[in-house]
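Database export, one record per block. Field names are fixed; values are copied verbatim from the stored entry.
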Amino acid sequence: MATRLYTHPVYLEHLTPPGHPERPDRLRAIAKVLAHDVFAPLDRVEAPMADETAILLAHPETYARRIRAEIPHEGLARIDADTVVGPRSWDAALTAVGAATAAVDDVFEGRADNVFVAARPPGHHAEKDRAMGFCLFNNAAIAARHAQKAHGAERVAIVDWDVHHGNGTQDIFWDDPSVLYCSTHQMPLYPGTGAASETGAGNIVNLPLAPGSDGEALREALESVILPRIDDFRPDIIIISAGFDAHYRDPLAELNFTERDFGSATSMLMERAGRWSGNRLVSLLEGGYDLEGLGLSVAAHVGCLMKG
């Protein structure tokens, strides 16, 4: 089976102010690299818009209504200092959720071994009832709950290698041992969470990295801690919160990963998905704000996914 790619033009219509790092050009940079002939075998599918009830898999209804009420009819509105919405942001966010849940359906129903979702806004900073860090709804958390509810997954592993800690995902699954959440991230850095001592119900694994750490630190975190925890957990599906802002070119942080490091990490997680999860792996775009670094990293990541 081919690797499936979900994206949608509406993601470009989620607008942010000039100079904002989470901007439509991010997806244009990804589209440019994935237009290369080597990616011709990708199974490219337009992302579906989710039903609004999908949000409720990870967020209360009162929160969903509050976010919808923030959407302006024209111009831009700020939810917080970093998180901005425009007239099409609700549709873009619902379509990001729709792509995440459709990707889960695909790997459980045999339409793809693995799926990459190139969507925005990202999701891993969105807590149960708080939008922050450019994120409105937690796409990874919704995907995990969808795997459990729609496909009977008993154990879901989420691996987050974004340079910023996924405080939202940790918040949602803090006391839920059916979901293993493993995060590598720079510390100190926004949002200030993600200390190794934050372990939830024993299902939260935080591996903070010092500024200046390179890809060897990522490899060490995977080989010494994350992969053994996945082996013990034996997940029915692996979900990657695939942020590429730990790339050395990225302006928002100080880790020094290369695109090859992301490719290597992808291969390691694919091997575990093959071992425990019937090859079921879903990757959801999170951060990555230098356009060249993002494009190179996504190319390496998707290239590895396509090798199956």
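Remark 1: Strands lie at 4-7, 43-46, 77-78, 84-85, 114-117, 156-160, 179-186, 204-209, 237-242, 281-285.
Remark 2: The longest strand covers residues 179-186.
End of record.
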